[in-house]
């Protein structure tokens, strides 16, 4: 439940912030005529995400045996990619409010309500896709109470976003996103390792004679209540294979390197500007 709560809170909060910034700008500039395009964009983006969730559920239901393992592994790898991209994208958005208002101002000035509609639709759809993929991959990993956690996360984010723009709460959003990014990186690493496990079971990746590398089930079994929670949330396993352990640890090295390169580019852009 915690994983679904966190992912839906994070994704919904991002949408709420974008929509809030756009609506605030339109209100302050007395361009209320364009607000309907914002809500049209939200509605269409949510609808497409729901359709994707339905298609994914129907599509997944047609697999069994080896093909099911392969599909689960592929879905987890794709979800890891989306989560990583999302975290890196947010890391680069130091002036998101300024750039958003510039885009909206341009569309409003030219009378392009369609441009505002596309901006909001693409934002909602992007976050919706990430949410759908993660929740599906998390459920395949054994998570329970997904719906309950997701609802709490969505409601909490909407309430926080509304309060943020209604009463101008001075919240440190960078801190919020940094904390959630840490958890999401742990989730992504766990999904990557779980995807490797599915590919090993499907015979696409080797299982070495010395696997598992070690067995700490006597300390914390992955099938126990706590072990199951840690497995779903952070990818914990009491009997890891060599490839699972390598993929889990290598992921953090990869993200660290990407973040360093991104930071260097941001510094160079700042100097040039």
Automatic annotation (TrEMBL):
Sample GO molecular function, one term: ferrous iron transmembrane transporter activity
Recorded GO CC terms: high-affinity iron permease complex
Transmembrane segments: 6-26, 38-61, 73-91, 112-135, 147-168, 175-196
Keywords, comma-separated and alphabetical: Membrane, Transmembrane, Transmembrane helix
Signal peptide positions (record): none
Protein name: High-affinity iron transporter
Keyword Transmembrane helix (UniProt): yes
Membrane topology: Multi-pass membrane protein
């Amino acid at each position: 439940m915690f994983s679904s709560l966190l992912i839906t809170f994070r994704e919904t909060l991002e949408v709420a912030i974008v929509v809030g910034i756009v609506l605030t700008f339109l209100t302050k500039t007395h361009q209320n005529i364009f607000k309907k395009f914002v809500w049209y964009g939200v509605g269409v983006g949510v609808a497409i995400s729901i359709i994707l969730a339905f298609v994914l559920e129907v599509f997944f239901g047609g697999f069994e045996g080896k093909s099911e393992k392969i599909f689960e592994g592929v879905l987890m790898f794709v979800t890891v990619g989306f989560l990583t991209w999302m975290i890196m994208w947010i890391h680069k958005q130091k002036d998101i409010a300024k750039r958003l208002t510039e885009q909206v101002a341009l569309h409003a000035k030219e009378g392009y309500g369609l441009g505002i509609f596309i901006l909001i639709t693409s934002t909602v759809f992007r976050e919706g896709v990430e949410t759908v993929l993660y929740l599906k991959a998390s459920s395949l990993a054994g998570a329970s109470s997904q719906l309950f956690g997701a609802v709490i996360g969505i409601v909490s984010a909407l309430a926080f976003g509304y309060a943020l723009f209604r009463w101008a709460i001075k919240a440190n959003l960078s801190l919020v996103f940094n904390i959630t990014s840490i958890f999401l990186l742990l989730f992504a690493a766990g999904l990557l390792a779980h995807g490797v496990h599915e590919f090993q079971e499907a015979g696409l990746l080797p299982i070495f004679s010395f696997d598992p590398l070690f067995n700490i089930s006597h300390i914390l079994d992955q099938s126990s209540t706590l072990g199951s929670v840690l497995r779903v949330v952070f990818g914990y396993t009491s009997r890891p294979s060599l490839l699972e352990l390598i993929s889990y640890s290598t992921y953090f090295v990869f993200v660290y390197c990407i973040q360093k390169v991104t930071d260097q580019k941001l510094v160079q852009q700042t100097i040039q500007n």
